[in-house]
Amino acid sequence: MRNYERILWWGNVRELSFMQRIAFAKDNRFDALNISPNDIESLLAGGETLASIRAMADDQGIALTYLDPVVGWYPNWEPIGPAAEMLPFLSAGLGRTFEFANALGIDRILAITPSAVGAHSVADLAPHLARLAQEARTHGVTVVLEAMPMWGFTRFSDVVALQEAVQADNVKLLFDTWHYCRGGRQDEILAAVPSGIIDHVQIADGTATCPTGMSLFEDCLQHRLPPGEGALPIDDILALLHRGGHLNSVGPEVFSSVFDTMTAAQIRDRLMPAFNAAVVHARQDT
């Protein structure tokens, strides 16, 4: 499995076209770009083929990695309540995970738990994750787990426990600074994670707490900030990750309604100096 030092996540540039995202990745020294099943289906509906989608990235020297998100790998996964509005997006490409991965050369899938908070335990999901990992292995794919504070497994310790329960060498973890802070810091658990288990670190800042009257979903998907612009302890968390040997693959993930109105150049000028500075500072911390 290839290590990508810098991954551009679609959340930063979600209003740009696929070709514009590839150009952004290339211009800002990213190795790879992630892609959602929803984006793939939209491109296919617009006349592209899986082969042509891959060629667009290949031609610019950008790899595709992290099919994100992947759902449906356990029963009763569907979100309920206000989160149900995400169902069409989450359901895109359902059942085509490995078809997409194989055709696009994708080596990682991001498995999430979008069901209601507390609906499933580690013991419930471990057998289903083991089956997913076994199928993924036949396709040369790594399964990466992510905790999200607004549904399913909300804390980093939850996905640590799930990964440990399965003990498959192709099951890793994704660490997101925004999710980690909103879910509740657990630095003692983070410090105990062996090097090599955290596959990638996503970096985003935000307000110290979710603003009053705003849902976690809105806060997550509309109001993240570049590193250093918010109140989250980004430097401390990245330094802890660096000391644990986890800061080998990094990428910004700033979902922002402000970014949605910007050009690629404007996003670059707002995002990249802050992201680059945060990574350099963390890696210099001993």
Automatic annotation (TrEMBL):
This is Xylose isomerase-likeTIM barrel domain-containing protein. The keyword Transport does not apply. Keywords: Isomerase. Residues 42-257 form the Xylose isomerase-like TIM barrel domain. InterPro entries: IolE/XylAMocC-like (IPR050312), Xyl_isomerase-like_sf (IPR036237), Xyl_isomerase-like_TIM-brl (IPR013022). It holds the Pfam family AP_endonuc_2. It comes from the Bacteria. GO terms for molecular function: isomerase activity.
